[in-house]
Inverse folding.
């Protein structure tokens, strides 16, 4: 009877190729969790797009004005929130005012506002300025038609804010155009930079339509290859991609570029220039917190692929 | 008279807030609009596609003109156009923000349509008590709760007397409820839902990522190099090993992990992605033209 | 239990509920899945009114008064025409009149397609330009020396640029001539394009893995560090 037949023991090749799914999931969970309990500063080589991003952001005149198009939600919190936090820290420390809007997702404006609140509270604790809504940044909210909105920003930026209300601290809603952020703004070229923090296809929407303002993107990891192409062609002045980009920025905020000292980061492109960092301030965030765990999970995947391929190779050799 | 010029001097196209004139004009516009919509239902079937084609072409024509027409430079608000060309140029520039509003509003109605469609499916499930109707009820209740608390929170914050709501100490039940639903549940479930893919990628990579052909081997090796280059520690150790061999030899230095992955990205990956992109671009331009001229089925067939 | 801890507890429960699908499809997962869909669509509805229709349409149509009662912003009544246009979209469920829903869709598609020509130029112009780099060296030196002379095209640069150009051409050939071609040259170029494309996909895979793992790490950070360590155990 079939029941009596003993199943043939699995060969090594078969064993290597048939690890049970729960085991793989379990190992991944453990490997993604344990490193989070250890705070380790890992060596890092900052890549050019991140260095350019930091350098261009630092070169923005103190007190100038920029636009942040925030199109991420917590679905990519692991990457986008770290990016947004790093960007906000740089802007707040340089007292740069910004217009906030979203063309990607109805949840995005609220998520961005929550992040701004968290970062300004953290900065205040360390002697930073309290960034006030309406005074230091103005929120235009969500626009479902990204295409038309970006064309309008390029053509007549004030028209995009027309009719929009924002909530100043300590008073009721006011017209967004009355915000000090819009003072002296006639066209989009009066803004020094257009920052896009996104995890969706709005990167292309903006790139296709915005011609009158320099741009820098902060994108999720999966979007890095596509956006590297835009960075290489000069359409983007800088690019921060994924958690690696965040870790780069956090390192750059600590030591700057071409400044002698421990952990020095040098760049041939900025030879002869010294771009400062903020040593001693809170520069680390999600990038530093997650980078060690990312090492282990990537290593796990590499091992899993090698094990699977080894199993296949042994099977083939046995069959031959 | 420019319908699209939205400046406040009184014109035929506007009226003071709360005035009888505005109310009458709004009502008339509503009746005319509904009348046109109802009138369209009587159009013979063979003419319908021409109506859709006309609307699509007209809408597209605006942005084509916006692109090809010269734009006013350094124009002051009081400047008047000199001649028909400049007049057209001013008209297009003034109209674009209104077209943006129009697009956003229609896109808004479309989002509403999506939600209406979702509700239609789930209400029907509940009404007919179909299999798993209880989950449909959960969806509808969650939606209603979010709409109620979300909008109530918005209304409270609109009131100038409630400016203290910026501080959590002054929150009431509505504000806590909205925060719990949005920040506590929705945002965290959003993060949870998208993070599940990591498990599937891991499992799929282990089971299916095999060097079975030349293409698969190339893909596998490149993926490994990119992943290794993302690991700072590996990069650091690899570079150290290369430096220990020679710090001056350009050829040897080219074997640093960052150099290899940088070369791959700059020389093969980016151009390969551009190759795809250019291919897509040709199709995109053709599709744009077909949509505009209603030659694409989804664009204009009625 | 304070509010922030309660909020975290609810969030962790929901996350665990969603993760339970990894074991198998179950009712606990389906419950949270439907809560998620309900909340997401509910929020979209709120924002649809507060951020889009109220400020972008309703208030522009009605205008506004200043504190002294005088008109501050005029009301633009032609915006009323957008209501029947928008409502036409909802005829999609009506068998007899569903063609009307193609009118608002036609407007959106028309506006989108009209933008495509300028968008195409803005998008592809710099990319095309950057793809054409010098492929003839102007020095006999192969590698970059310690100090690179600006404007010099080293042999290694020229080779790299040539490979990049060939990659673009061969991948494009693979895309445009995906059907069976008789020309041997085209066939060889197309095959090379397919191999080079795999390098691009390999890099995309590596980046995708980074992203997906980071999202998982972030969830684990929320559960174990933010909720358990900092929230429950009050540890730094």
């Amino acid at each position: 009877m079939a029941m009596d037949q003993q199943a043939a023991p699995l060969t090594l090749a078969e064993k290597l190729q048939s690890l049970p799914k729960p085991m793989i999931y379990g190992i991944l969970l453990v490997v993604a969790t344990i490193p989070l309990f250890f705070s380790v500063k890992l060596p890092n080589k900052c890549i050019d797009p991140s260095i350019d991003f930091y350098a261009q952001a630092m070169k923005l005149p103190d007190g100038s004005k920029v636009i942040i198009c925030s199109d991420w939600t917590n679905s990519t919190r692991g990457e986008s929130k770290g990016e947004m936090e790093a960007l906000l820290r740089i802007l707040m420390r340089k007292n740069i005012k910004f217009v906030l809007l979203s063309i990607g997702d109805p949840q995005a404006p609220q998520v961005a506002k929550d992040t701004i609140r968290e970062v300004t509270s953290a900065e205040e604790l360390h002697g930073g300025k309290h960034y006030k809504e309406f005074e230091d940044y103005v929120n235009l909210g969500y626009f479902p038609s990204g295409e038309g909105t970006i064309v309008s920003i390029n053509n007549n930026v004030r028209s995009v804010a027309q009719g929009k209300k924002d909530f100043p601290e300590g008073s009721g809603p006011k017209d967004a155009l009355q915000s000090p952020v819009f003072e002296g703004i006639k066209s989009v070229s009066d803004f020094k930079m257009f920052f896009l923090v996104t995890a969706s296809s709005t990167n292309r929407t903006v790139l296709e339509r915005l011609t009158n303002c320099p741009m820098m993107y902060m994108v999720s990891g999966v979007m890095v290859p596509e956006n590297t192409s835009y960075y290489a062609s000069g359409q983007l002045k800088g690019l921060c991609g994924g958690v690696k980009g965040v870790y780069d920025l956090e390192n750059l905020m600590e030591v700057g570029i071409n400044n002698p000292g421990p952990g020095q980061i040098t760049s041939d492109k900025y030879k002869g220039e010294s771009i400062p960092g903020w040593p001693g301030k809170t520069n680390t965030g999600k990038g530093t917190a997650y980078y060690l765990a990312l090492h282990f999970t990537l290593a796990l995947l590499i091992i899993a692929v090698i094990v699977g391929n080894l199993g296949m190779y042994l099977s083939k050799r046995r069959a031959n | 008279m420019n319908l699209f010029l939205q400046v406040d001097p009184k014109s035929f196209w506007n009226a003071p807030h709360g005035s009888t004139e505005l109310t009458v004009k709004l009502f008339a516009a509503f009746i005319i609009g509904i009348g046109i919509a109802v009138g369209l239902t009587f159009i013979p079937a063979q003419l319908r596609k021409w109506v859709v084609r006309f609307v699509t072409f007209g809408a597209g024509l605006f942005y084509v003109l916006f692109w090809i027409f010269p734009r006013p430079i350094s124009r002051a608000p009081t400047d008047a156009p000199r001649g028909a060309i400049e007049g057209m140029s001013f008209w297009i520039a003034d109209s674009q923000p209104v077209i943006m509003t129009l697009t956003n509003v229609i896109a808004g109605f479309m989002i509403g349509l999506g939600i209406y469609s979702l509700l239609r499916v789930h209400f029907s499930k509940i009404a007919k008590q179909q299999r798993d109707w209880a989950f449909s009820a959960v969806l509808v209740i969650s939606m209603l709760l979010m709409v109620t608390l979300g909008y109530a929170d918005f209304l409270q914050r609109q009131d100038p007397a409630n400016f203290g709501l910026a501080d959590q100490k002054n929150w009431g039940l509505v504000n806590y409820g909205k925060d719990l639903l949005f920040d506590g549940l929705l945002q965290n479930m959003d993060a949870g839902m998208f993070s599940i893919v990591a498990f599937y990628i891991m499992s799929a990579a282990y089971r299916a990522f095999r060097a079975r052909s030349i293409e698969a081997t190339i893909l596998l090796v490149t993926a490994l190099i990119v992943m290794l280059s993302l690991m700072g520690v590996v990069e650091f150790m690899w570079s150290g090993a290369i430096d220990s061999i020679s710090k001056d030899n350009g050829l040897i230095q080219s074997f640093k992990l960052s150099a290899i992955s940088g070369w791959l990205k700059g020389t093969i990956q980016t151009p390969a992605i551009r190759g795809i992109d250019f291919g897509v671009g040709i199709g995109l331009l053709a599709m744009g033209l077909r949509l505009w001229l209603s030659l694409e089925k989804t664009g204009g067939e009625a | 239990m304070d509010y922030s801890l309660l909020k975290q507890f609810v969030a962790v429960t929901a996350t665990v509920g969603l993760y339970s699908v990894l074991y198998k499809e179950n009712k606990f997962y389906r419950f949270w899945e439907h809560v998620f869909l309900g909340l997401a669509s509910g929020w979209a509805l709120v924002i649809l009114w507060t951020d889009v229709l109220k400020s972008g349409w309703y208030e522009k149509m009605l205008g506004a008064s200043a504190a002294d009662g005088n008109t501050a912003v005029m009301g633009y009544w032609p915006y009323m025409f957008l209501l029947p246009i928008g409502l036409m979209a909802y005829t999609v469920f009506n068998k007899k009149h569903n063609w009307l829903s193609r009118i608002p869709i036609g407007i959106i598609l028309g506006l989108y397609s009209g933008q495509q020509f300028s968008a195409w130029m803005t998008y592809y112009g710099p990319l095309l330009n950057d793809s054409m780099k010098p492929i003839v060296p102007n020095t006999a030196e192969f590698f970059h020396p310690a100090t690179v002379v600006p404007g010099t095209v080293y042999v290694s640069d020229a080779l790299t640029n040539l490979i990049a150009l060939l990659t673009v051409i061969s991948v494009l050939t693979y895309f445009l001539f995906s059907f069976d071609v008789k020309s041997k040259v085209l066939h060889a170029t197309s095959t090379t394009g397919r191999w080079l494309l795999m390098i691009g996909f390999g890099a995309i895979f590596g980046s995708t893995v980074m992203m997906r793992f980071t999202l998982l790490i972030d969830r684990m950070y929320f559960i174990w560090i933010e909720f358990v360590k900092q929230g429950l155990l009050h540890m730094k």
Chain C has three domains: 1-75, 80-131, 136-236.
